[in-house]
Amino acid sequence: MVNGYAAASLAEALEIRSNQKVVPYAGGTDLMVENRSGVDYLFLGKIPELRNINEDDEYIRIGAAVTFTQALEDKKVPALMKEALKRIAAPAIRNAGTFGGNLGNGSAKADSVLIEFVSDARLRLASRDKERIVDVDKFYLGRKKLDLAADELIVEILLPRTGLDRYSYEKVGGRNALAISRVSFAGIFDERDGRITKLAAAFGAVADTVLRYKDLEETMLGKTLDEARELKEKYLEGYAERMVLTQGRVSAEYRKKVCMNLLGDFLAKFGI
Amino acid sequence: MEKISQSVVKKDHAPKVSGRSIYVADYPPEGVLCGKLLHSKVARAKILGVEVPKLPEGYFYVDARDVPGDNNVNIVLDDTPVFCRDTVEYIGEPIAMICGPDEKEVIRLRDECKVAYEELEPVLDFYSADEKFFDYNFGHGDVDKAFAEADKTYEEEFETGYQEQAYLETQGMMAEPEEGGRMFVHGSSQCAYYIHGAVMRALGCGPTGVHIKQDVTGGGFGGKEAFPSILGCQVAVAARKCGKPVRCVFDRREDMEYTSKRHPSFCRYKAAVKDGRVTALDIDVKFNAGAYSTLSAVVLQRGIIASPGIYNIPNVRVHGSAVKTNTSPCGAYRGFGGPQTFFAVEMFMSHIARDLGREPLEFKRTHLVKQGDQTSTCGKYHFPVPIPDMIDEVVRESDFENKRREYAKAQTGRYRRGIGMSMYFHGAGFTGAGERDLIKAVARLRKYKDGRVEVLASNGDIGQGVRTTFPKIVANELNLPLDQVFYEHPDTARVPDSGPTVASRSLMIVGELLRRAAIKLREQWKDGEEQEVEEHYKEPDFVIPFYIDKFEGDAYPTYAWAVNAIELEIDTYTGVARVLGAYGSFDVGTPVDYNVVMGQMEGGFLQGIGYASIEKMDYDSKGRIRNNSLSDYLIPTTMDVPRLKCMLHVEKYPDGPYGAKGAGELPLVGAPAAYLEAVEQALGGMKLNHAPFTAEDTLSAITKEVN
Amino acid sequence: MSEIRFRLNGSEVSYAGSGADRLLEVLRNTYRCTSVKCGCKEGECGACSVLIDGVLINSCCVAMGAIEGSEVVTMEGFRETRRFEVLDKAFGELSAVQCGFCIPGMVLAAEALLSKNPHPTVDEIRQGLSGNLCRCTGYNAIVNAVELAAKEGEGLW
């Protein structure tokens, strides 16, 4: 094929990736809008190993070429992820758009990526000769900058199987469908024996990458709800100080206000 | 329901639903050159020169020097050039067109053209812009005296933004040289004869030197009223130079950035109130016309005539201006000046009412015009004004009064609700003496030997259904089955000039001509013979002559009326508003086809809700429009508004066919005021004064109030 | 360099051009499927919707290399089906077509929805059509038409 390589297996794809300068193409919904000229695509959409959703003891393993629609129809995919997926664009985009593509595009607006950030997901990357697992927040180095070598492909997203049941998810777009996130928020809460064991909060579409401040989260861990309420003001101040947001079609001030409101709402929802 | 109102399957349904309809981009590309415009990249500059890359054989560079006739496009004034003169006046102004057989190659060559600009300081600040294309004053009564005697006076400013038509099919025109030197221009358009006049002038030929046909058109909403005249001239000039057919279809970004849209407005309203009534309005209306005047004169006229709303105010003074800025020229968009001023006057009346401790609806009711009252231009409301009944219908359907009371109570929590109402008219047909003095519409019917009858008129079906409703009228008068009467897309070589497809006039004016023609044909009907009948527009006798220099007389023979209510819920954490219900009662006279008219009402209403809320477009400090894609300029999807509740109230107009009045524009006009009044209530009674009112605006209003 | 083979409206075809070419443009220019409309080239309007392996996809967001071995259906193919007849009739009865530019894509979106969910609620219909912009109708008539088609076409989906 001219300007493109079709691979039937992951091994074949990695072989091509190691020998040629190619742009990995999964669903095409971002790439075709960019409409880069003179590039060779490596078509990944029909590689069986990339199209499965599996689970092991620890993770739901979502193949990089799994589409959002496929994930929405799969019982293994957790509700939090589905909340985000069903608000992505519209059916035709969800039918084509993939997890790997959402990551590979490197945008902080990617709705599935926000969930991966908040749930401490990991990514399995592979090249012809080796494989590695990387935390999603380490994978994002900056706006459109990824820790992905020229010979590597994203193979799977490893989403923790447990601990994702108590959450908040909010997407603020310009309209109710076909909307790119202007602010997105996901929070996960968990407690054991009356003490907070998880209080994760991630913000999408507001900076170069998804924002998450684990050190601020840690100030709440091990606390009772009463203690957390005492700490709440300081905790929120920490976010207000740290979040420096980008100016876009909507202002940074607006985004910040929304983020703080949603974070406050998340805390309130779980009694903090 | 009257027989004429009963819906039929639209004549253009089958080809459209099956994808067989041929829009201008769909003609086979063989032998057709692709044209792409070289647009100015700066808002104001002297063009020192253009360095054109070496053109392969079969590729052409076309600019003002190639215009055989006059390089001025005939619109209202003649200030819009076909291709730029020695200066460019806005980002996007066409400098030249590159034509050639391969689109990608044409784009490459176009992008390699190097334009040498000597940049000049552009005028971008609309508020301080003072070069007036048009400046009008009118009024009646003694405004100064009313203000001197007032118990209380009010002053407020209102603003509205751009609105982009966002028709799904972008602008596109094609020109084909024919044997004998005649030029055939066709494409996506509303006004075949406007293009005809413009192309004649650009090519420097007589009326038979060119003919224009409307292709199947993927939406217009005003956006294809004047713009296709410009693009039509450009492709015609290019085709003349290349000696081959040339087609230019805009891509979406080009279309959104560089073609005409609704004028942004800034209005200052002052009111004098005595004994609980508004006794005077002193109104200043300013529209941002953009770089060339195009249709701004007539848009402004309609806007200022409507500016006192539908209220009987004894003393009125109106000043209106359309100013030049170095931005894309604004033009026609459904409502044509009315949405801007109705927004202002409806908000203003509502604010005055609340300040006086009155419910806006009750306050407005006491000021309503009625039959026999004087209009803002000292004309007369000749026919009954059905607004009181329409208010009742909307109140009943939306449970307005209960909700309004309920939502007025202090609301706490994240989500808060409000409901608002607006009432307004749309003057049917051209403003003033336009129909009588300028358009002079002629419509014709041709009967073939086999008994089929063809409608010959120049009004294009742009989705609003005239290919169906015109034949319905004719078939009804001739007692023919509908499939015996047909109406093709107009070609100026075959049809008389029945005027443009604008101003909600087609059905009311041309439909009536066709009805009369059909009666004439019925009286002369001879089986087996080919026959033709013709009708000419005649101004109704009751009309008080309108003088544009004084803005005096009947600006419109009659009016279409509407009442809207919008109920919404605001998320105070994000500012996002969710429309819970949208209700409209619309009086467009007798619907000539119930479904067709309802489709207009629903579609227009949703455009109005978009205009009120999410449709935001602006330009940056360089004069470049940033919201240039459908992901950046948002129009409503299926998910944004629940099922719209539209109702028809019929107040027949004796001079329209079966009582029909102008319909197309009405439903868009009032949504912003109803929407904003609802937002105000949800936010605990704020006073808001600009549209669109976005989620960001809402959150910033909440934040301001808290501080 | 091999050609890209796929099925288009039931026929085997092979495309010799670039794998990076846009399906939308190839359908329109090479195969003359002009029912597939170009509204934005950004996946934002749905006018270019087609069915690929039975699934609704914006053809502007597909590179030719991605459809090797797939089955592509445009309105040119779908209009020959009994399901189309039902949708056609419902859209016609309710005058749901105005300018028509969004309609081939809209009807294919309806087909995709009904294939998955033959008895959709109004909300599900709105969800199913949410990627297809229409500027003319305000969507009432279109949503009603799909509801009517689902009823009239009982058993077809």
On the 0 to 100 scale, the average pLDDT of chain B is 97
Per CATH, the superfamily of the largest domain in chain C is: Beta-grasp domain
**N- and C-termini, Cα separation of chain C:** 40 Å
Shape of chain C: globular
CATH topology description of the largest domain in chain B: Aldehyde Oxidoreductase, domain 4
Structural class of chain C: alpha+beta
Outline of chain B: globular
Extended strand count of chain B: 24
- C-alpha termini separation of chain B: 56 Å
Fraction in beta strands of chain B: 15-25%
- Number of separate domains of chain B: 3
Rounded radius of gyration of chain C (Å): 15 Å
Low-pLDDT runs of 5+ residues of chain C are: none
Largest sheet of chain B: 7 strands, mixed
| β-strand number of chain C | 5
Structural write-up:
The complex is a heterotrimer of chains A (272), B (707) and C (157). In chain A, 33% of the residues lie in helices and 25% in strands. Chain A has 272 residues and is of the alpha+beta class. Chain A folds into two domains: 47-160, 2-Layer Sandwich (Uridine Diphospho-n-acetylenolpyruvylglucosamine Reductase, domain 3); 167-269, Enolase-like, domain 1. In chain A, β2, α2 (31-34) and β3 form a beta-alpha-beta unit. The longest helix of chain A has 18 residues, at 225-242. By secondary structure, chain B is α+β, with helices and mostly antiparallel strands. Chain B is 28% helix and 23% strand. Chain B starts with 12 loop residues before the first helix and ends with a helix. The mean pLDDT of chain B is 97. Chain B has a seven-stranded mixed beta sheet with strand order 3-5-1-12-9-10-11. In chain B, strands 7-15-14-13-8-24 form a six-stranded mixed beta sheet. Chain C has two domains: 4-76, Ubiquitin-like (UB roll), CATH 3.10.20.30; 81-152, DNA polymerase, domain 1 (Orthogonal Bundle), CATH 1.10.150. Chain C has helices at residues 23-30, 75-78, 82-93, 103-116, 122-128, 140-152, and strands spanning 4-8, 11-15, 49-52, 55-58, 71-73. In chain C, α3 packs across α6 (140-152). Chains in contact: A-B, A-C, B-C. At the B-C interface, α1 and α15 of B face α3, α4, α5 and α6 of C.
